[in-house]
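Review box. Two proteins, two foldings.
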Amino acid sequence: MNKLINVNRILSSGLLVLSSSLLVACGGGGGGGGQTEVVETVETEPSPEPTTPVETVPEPSPEPTPIATSLEEVQVAESFIFSNQQDIELQVSYPMLGDERAYLNICTQWKDMEQQSLEYSSCVWRGQISQSQMALDITLPAHASTLVAEVWQLSSGNVTRVHQELSLAELGVTSPSFSF
């Protein structure tokens, strides 16, 4: 017990000397620029009180989600399909007139929307319209957000182009269709 009291006195004295030297080294915090008055103080050491150690229990930290470091550790839901495309059945209605010929382009991008020009490299179906009602099975890339249909009407040497656009966000609600 005496050793504990001696250690406590040494620590208290050391702390007192350290704080006094810091106060003197910094100039005492006065800053008035006038005369300084030195006051000597003598501190008496308080008698040590017996303390009981307080036991602290650390709170458990939540388990972090493990990060997959290899392909074997990757986990996905069984319902997830590893596909970067979607298959749809598209209905196309076009009124056939006599000797008129019509061709259909179905693309996913405009080249220039203002000039009604399609990006033909994004077309997912191109061909002649042979019936007034057609059902087309189309495979779309996953990044496609719209479908644009373009009909070229060829009659009497003249070419007329007609466009329609369909948002793919609406595909889940109704069956997609173009009707000209």
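Next protein.
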Amino acid sequence: MSHSAQFDPLSQNTTSHLDTSTQSPSESLQQVADVPVFKVYNPSNFVNAAPAPSLPDEYFTPTASDLKAAQATLSARTQALVNAPLQLRATREATEKAKRARWPQTTIRIRFTDRTQLEKVFPSTDKIRSVYAFVRSCLREDVRPIKFILYQSPPKRDLKVSDPNVRDLSLADLQLAPSSILLLRFEDETLNHTNISAPLAPSVLALATDLPMPPSLDQDIPPGGSNHPQSSANSNSMSKPGEKKIPKWLKLGLKK
């Protein structure tokens, strides 16, 4: 019997990818259970990638539309902060409900100290204990009894199951939706060294693939080397020899 369909590791619905027309119910359930619903990524080497190409002066010069958009965003955020204390409880609950409806699933990526990564999609209503259970199930048998902590950084925030302010909240309530990267540290410090391979089960490591490369900066810059063609004439007169380039987002902050 052939299985020609490909399985998406992030898909929660695995039955549609399997041909079970000639199998008994028990055989079908066993095959579904054996299909991985997560991804494993080898340690990334992005830090050793080639340096980004030098950007032209025009790239760092904000246009009138850039300034207008930044001002509109700043005004909207300021207005939201001013109106926040005036919101009724029903309004706040409606806002939270809308967020949960918008992100019914949360993608969690767990990064080990050697930069090996596990990735799985959880229902946003799940608690953090579901993430702990998933990670523990992927560890080697000899490492599973060792306690570990999942945390975010920066700023550092421990997501301990023993913390009542964490364990009783959903992934959405913990502000982890729609996607988040969590770091992991073991109580056994010997497992936390960067030169120690992630203690994952051999069956899990066998599924590892290379992490997709991030998009190149060249793809974001139009032909000619400038993302603001209309301002090239003015920028040439504003630039001075030896002048240090300042990103446009920093210029916006200096103009406040």
